[in-house]
Amino acid sequence: MKTFLQSKLLQGIIISNVIVLIIIWLNNWLHSEKDGILVFSEFVILPLLMGVISSWFWRNLNLKSKLLIWYSILNGLLAILLSYIFLGEGTICLIIVSPLIFAFVITGAFIGKTMFRKNNQTLNVSIVSILLVIFTVDSISDHHYSNMVSDEIIVKAAPEKIWKNVVAFEKIKQADTYWLFKAGMPSPMQTTVTAYKKGAGRKCIFSNGYVFDEKIVTFDVNKDLTFDITGQPKDPEIMGHIDIERGQFLLKDNGDGTTTLVGNSWYSLKVFPIWYYDLWAESITRNVHLRVMHHIKELSEKN
Amino acid sequence: MFSFVVKRLDFLKSIPLLALVFDSLLKMWMLITKPERLDQIDKIENEVLKWKNTSLSLHKFGGSQFNHNQREFAHIHSNGLLDILFTQKVKAELMLYGRVEQHHVFKKSGWISFYVHHTEDVDYAIFLLKLSYNKIAGNEYRQF
Q: Most buried pick, A159, A222, B32, B124, via CB within 10 A?
């Protein structure tokens, strides 16, 4: 046990994690004005750096590729555990981020293995320098990203019958089908309103009791319900990394007894890279839409 | 999957790191499905590194690159796909034996592709690499 604790293997895992944790802490301290924004470097450059650092400690162990991957996975798991403990990240958030962490820690470990095998100090310094330059530039750059997700379904009912269910609805009793909802992510359950008019307050209640406060900004009966999100819960899960800004339901009479119900949501992301996190944001938003819209459909098609 | 990415997502290869990350995902996939493949690749790499003036580097499109005096003569992707550079003449002769294929992308070049699927393929992979190495190192071809 003592030998293991003193081993280069463990040093590689512990020290790479400690260095990255210090960099994240320093970065948050230096850029405290960037409330909650997590830049792409924190999910790409730092895991790469972790892999490179651990490889430096492991350079004389002649690790086979299989072992290098397993130890890198262990390295990534520790990083995820430390994020849970010190950064207060939620379980779902960590599930979402884990593929990025593992992929880049492993990539970094193999980059490091090649670098240190060649014993090319110039290359080593240049690669680490490039990583740090990218991290610094990325950290001081402004980051803003907004998107809109739109979904539609056909409801076999007239807009007049659907409208009241769009404005507010009773508890959704159907079981969750989306895998992230099943894994514990809060799903929409109920919506209430203070009045059926523009300016009224609306609340969207989620399965864990969290409430999104909303204000109706367009109340075009049987056609358009648009509401701004005025308050959203600060949740350690994904909710802390995405701002839902506006929601909208549009009803289009198809003239054959059916109505096209369109659900739109506008949001801004606080986590980067976008090419990765927006895939998740779109998927989650879409599944929130569909859960609500299918419930509205079911209520409206009842005789 | 590998063929799909190479043929359909080829335009993404110029994005820095992307090919290396894809190769890491291949490694993880191999670790789960065919862990012995990673050992076979290790064995090939270790053998080539014993030869004079050889070195390993990361291949720009993912995998390990075999160099002689910093000049590439082959590379192996983490699914066991080994690509080796020969002259057109040697390539044509090798193709007659039926064990190697046209390069999976550059079919008209001197490059050939050979898949390391089984343990017994490792010896043939090393033989092919030695053949290319001998040429690039200025040695004469061995008979095969």
A: A159
For the entire predicted model, the pTM comes to 0.83
Using one digit for the tens of pLDDT, what is the confidence trace for B91-106?
A: 999 999 999 998 888 8
A217 contacts A70 by C-beta, under 8 angstroms: no
3-class DSSP assignment, residue B81: strand
Burial class of residue A47, CB neighbours in 10 A (0-12, 13-18, 19+): buried
| B contacts of A106 (beta carbons < 8 Å) | 24, 27-28
Name the nearest CA neighbour of A246 among A196, A212, A282, A199: A212
Rounded Cα distance between B7 and A168, Å, is: 50
Residue written as token pair 């430390």: A82
Q: B119-136 vs B35-49: helix axis angle to the nearest 10?
A: 30
SS3 A205: strand
Contact B27 A64 (CB under 8 A): no
Residue B141 has pLDDT above 70, yes or no: no
pLDDT, tens digit, 9 for 90 and up, residues A187-202: 999 999 999 999 999 9
**A109, A102 in Cβ contact below 8 A?**
no
